[in-house]
């Protein structure tokens, strides 16, 4: 049996996918998580063969959860299952250590097959993701790291440099707190730094703060 941990903040999604997977003769969903913190705890507790990880979740997003799981347990096989194909989601997720990248529009059967393939050591990527990776490889990599930031991420970084908390940033930009957390995670990944302090130091060092 291939043991699976499924992390997704939408209960109905977990119920539907878990029911299908559990009906397979070779797959067993051993645990479910509704946020990144629980995903980390359950991953290290159960050490499942494969982890299905949503990207946008409360408390901690899937990118940060993936990064922390891989840091402690490098052998973990993690499949991102998300609705997003944006560059600021795909690349940080793969760089964090995700093995495969699937869309929630995939059929349950396709997700089950991706679990089997990932368990066997293969990397399963949506065709659009493969195209993005190929295009990125063709582009010269001489641009400064901060030029990879989206306009919104630049705004968040400047507010971080002003010492504002995630909640204060959310209030000022009129966006959800969990959205701010995703932006912060993406900023850390793109600037190749470990925490907010290093991101702020980068911003001042490169004259991004006026």
UniProtKB/TrEMBL annotation:
The record's subcellular locations are:
Cytoplasm
Q: Which SMART domains match?
A: HTH_LUXR, REC
The GO terms describing molecular function are:
DNA binding
Stored PROSITE patterns = HTH_LUXR_1, HTH_LUXR_2, RESPONSE_REGULATORY
Q: Where is the HTH luxR-type domain?
A: 142-207
List the GO cellular component terms.
cytoplasm
User: Key word ATP-binding present in the record?
Assistant: no
Q: Which residues form a coiled coil?
A: none
The record's keywords, sorted A to Z, are: DNA-binding, Phosphoprotein, Transcription, Transcription regulation
> Where 4-aspartylphosphate occurs along the chain?
54
| Domain (Response regulatory): residue spans on this chain | 3-119
Gene Ontology process terms (BP): phosphorelay signal transduction system; regulation of DNA-templated transcription
Q: What is this protein called?
A: LuxR family transcriptional regulator
């Amino acid at each position: 049996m291939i043991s699976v941990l499924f992390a997704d903040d939408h209960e109905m999604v977990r119920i539907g996918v878990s029911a299908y997977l559990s009906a397979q003769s070779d797959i067993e969903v051993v645990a479910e998580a509704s946020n990144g913190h629980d995903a980390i705890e359950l991953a290290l507790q159960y050490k499942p063969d494969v982890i299905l990880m949503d990207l946008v979740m409360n408390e901690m997003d899937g990118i940060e959860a993936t990064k922390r799981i891989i840091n402690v347990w490098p052998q973990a096989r993690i499949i991102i299952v998300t609705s997003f194909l944006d560059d600021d989601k795909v690349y940080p997720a793969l760089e964090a250590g995700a093995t495969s990248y699937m869309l929630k529009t995939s059929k349950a059967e396709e997700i089950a097959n991706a679990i089997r393939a990932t368990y066997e050591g293969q990397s399963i990527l949506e065709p659009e993701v493969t195209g993005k990776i190929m295009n990125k490889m063709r582009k010269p990599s001489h641009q400064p790291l901060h030029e990879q930031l989206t306009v919104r991420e630049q705004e968040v970084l400047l507010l971080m440099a002003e010492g504002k908390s995630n909640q204060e940033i959310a209030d000022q930009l009129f966006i959800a707190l969990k959205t701010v957390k995703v932006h912060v995670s993406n900023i850390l990944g793109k600037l190749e730094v470990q925490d907010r302090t290093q991101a702020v130091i980068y911003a001042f060092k490169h004259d991004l703060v006026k």
